[in-house]
Amino acid sequence: MFRIDARRSAGRSALAMLEVMFHAAVRDVRKSHANAAWGLAVSIFQTILMLVVFFAMFQILGVRGAGVRGDFLLYLMSGIFLFMVHVKAMGAVVKADGPTSPMMKHAPMNTFVAIGAAALSSLYIQILSMTVILYLYHALVTPISIDQPVGAMAMVLLSWGSGAAIGMVFLAAKPWNPELIGLIAAIYLRANMIASGKMFLANSMPGFLRPMFDWNPLFHTIDQARGFIFLNYFPHYTSIAYPVRVMLVCLVIGLMGEYYTRRRASLSWAAGR
Fold first, then answer.
1. Is residue 2 part of a domain?
2. Is 151 a member of any domain?
C-alpha cells in the first residue's frame, strides 16, 4: 500500500530503461510469431526467396558480369541483406506502440522504450537470419571471404539505424493522418526495391542516372559495404558520411515530432482506427 521511492542515479535509471527495453523487445519478437524459431525461419525464407529471384533475373538478362570480381552470390547477398535490415527496421518502428496504445498504461513503459524495442527486435531477427544463411552458404556451397568484416558489419548497423530513424519520422506523423502516412511509407518501401541500388554498382552507373539514386542513404551503405566485402572494389561515388547525416537529422526530427505528438495524443485517435 505504501512504498518509499528511492532516488536513482542516472546510471541506474539508464540500466533500468535498458532492462525494460530488452523485455519489450522479447515481447515484440514473440508478438508476430509465437514460436521464435518459426519467426526466424520466415525471415530466412524471405531473404532466400529474394536471392533466388534476383539470381534468376541476372541469369536470364545475362548481366552477371555487372557484379564485382568475386563471389556473385555474395555480391547479391550484400545488397539484399542490407535492404532487408533497412526496410524491416523502418517497418517495425512505424508499427511500434504509440502514445495511445494500452501498453503505455503500464508505469515503466513509454514510447521511447516501444520504439527501441521494435528496432532491436528487427535487428535481432535480421542479424540471426543473415548469420544462418552465410554459415550455410559457407559450409555447404563454397567458402566465403570478407575483406573487412568490421567495416561490412558497420554498414549493416548503419542501414539499420537509418531505417529506424526514417521510421521514427513516419511514426511521429502517423497519428495525424494514418492513411496518408501509411501510403507514403509503403511508397518509400516499394521505391527502395530499385532505388537502393542492390542490383548494380555505383561505379558502373552512367553519370546521368546516378542522381536518381544518390538521395537514398541505403544506396550509399550498400555500395560502401561492397567496398568492405570485396578486395577489388573501391566506391568512388558514395560516402559513409551521407547516411550518417540523414540518420541523425531524421532521428532529431522523429524525436521532436514524437514528443509533440505525445503531448497532444488523444485516446479518440486510437478508438477511431
1. no
2. yes
Q: Name the 3-class secondary structure at 3.
A: coil
C-alpha cell at 92: 517495425
N-terminal to C-terminal alpha carbon distance within the chain: 37
Secondary structure of residue 137 in the 3-state scheme: helix
H helix count then E strand count, the chain: 9, 0
The DSSP 8-state label assigned to residue 204 in this structure reads T
Angle at 118 between CA 84 and CA 6, to 5 degrees: 150
Helix pair 36-61, 111-136: axis angle to 10 deg: 60
From residue 13, alpha-carbon distances to 8, 17, 18, 28 in Å are 6, 6, 9, 22
pTM of the model: 0.84
Tally the domains of the chain: 1
- Helix 241-263 / helix 217-229 crossing angle, nearest 10 deg: 140
Angle at 219 between CA 200 and CA 180, to 5 degrees: 120
Tracing cell 515503466 back to the chain, one arrives at 108
Tens digits of residue pLDDT in 228-264: 998 888 888 899 999 999 999 999 999 898 888 877 7
Across 220-257, b (16+ Cβ under 10 Å) vs e yields bbbbbbbbbbbeebebeebebebbbebbeebbebbbeb
The C-alpha cell that represents 120 in the structure block: 532491436
Q: Of 168, 166, 192, 170, whose CA–CA distance to 181 is shortest?
A: 170
Q: Is 133 within the bounds of a domain?
A: yes
Would the pLDDT of 122 be above 80?
A: yes
Residue 78 CB neighbours (<10 A): 26
Is 3 inside a domain boundary?
A: no
> What cell numbers appear for 47 in the block?
531473404
3-state secondary structure of 213: coil
Domain extent for 74? 14-268
Q: Which amino acid is at 272?
A: G
